Amino acid sequence: MLAAAARAGPRLCGAGAAPGGARLSSWLPQAVACRGSHWQSSLLAVRASLPTRAQPKKKKKVDVKREQAQKDRMKKKIKKLEKAAPEMIPIEDFITPLKYSDSNRVRSLPPLSFEETERRVLLMKKWCLFKQKQDEAEKKAIQTLVEAQQEALKELRLESEELYQAAIRRDEGLFPFERDGPDYTPPLPGYDPPEGKCVDITKVYTQ
Questions:
Q1: What burial class does residue 197 get, using C-beta atoms within 10 Å of its C-beta: 0-12 exposed, 13-18 middle, 19+ buried?
Q2: Which of 70, 77, 130, 202 is the least crowded, having the fewest Cβ atoms under 10 Å away?
Q3: Which tens digit of pLDDT belongs to each residue from 54-65?
């Protein structure tokens, strides 16, 4: 019935439509096109679209001879590397340059005046006397501490043998002992060291 109405559609839109067609057009949609057009289509018409396909990619032409020649060159390089002995890279950090091994290379120092020589000798004597007194004071302090420790242990043993044994027990967590000693050149307060330049002269060896 719908197909018959679709065929009668163009006639219903004309001026001379049949009475039966007028009754049929009362229940048809009002947006039915009067004439076929590529801009407008009937709601009762069957819509179909062409299948969309992506454009195929063009295949690159492979030159078989060129590819085989490249593989052959690579095989020759691998065989050449396998036959050659591995090159030993020298460690130049442990090699002393010959210019530093010359026995005649002696640094010439400017001669010191008599006053400067006497000043240095007197300064060295004062330094030796200071270190001697410091060493004697340290030894005396250590001897005093050892005597006080022995006296305390004697008194502790009289009080309790168990506490005495616990006091003379070896401390396993005391060693290893680490300590930073005095420096020959102590840091200067408020000194901001400048950023030096680094020139990389490392040689690169390629086989």
A1: exposed
A2: 202
A3: 666 777 777 888
Residue 5 in contact with residue 20, Cβ under 8 Å? no
Residue written as token pair 């400048």: 194
Q: Which residues contact 86 (CB under 8 A, 6 or more apart)?
A: 207
**CB-based contacts of 38, cutoff 8 Å, min separation 6:** none
Quick one: which of 158, 176, 175 has its CA closest to 167? 158
Which tokens in the block code for residue 204? 């690169």
Quickly state the pLDDT bin for 113 (edges 50, 70, 90).
Answer: very high
With tokens 């002393």, the residue in question is 96
The full length of the chain comes to 207
Distance between CA atoms of 97 and 36, rounded to whole angstroms? 100
Rg of the chain, C-alpha, whole Å: 54
Q: State pLDDT tens for residues 5-18.
A: 445 444 444 444 44
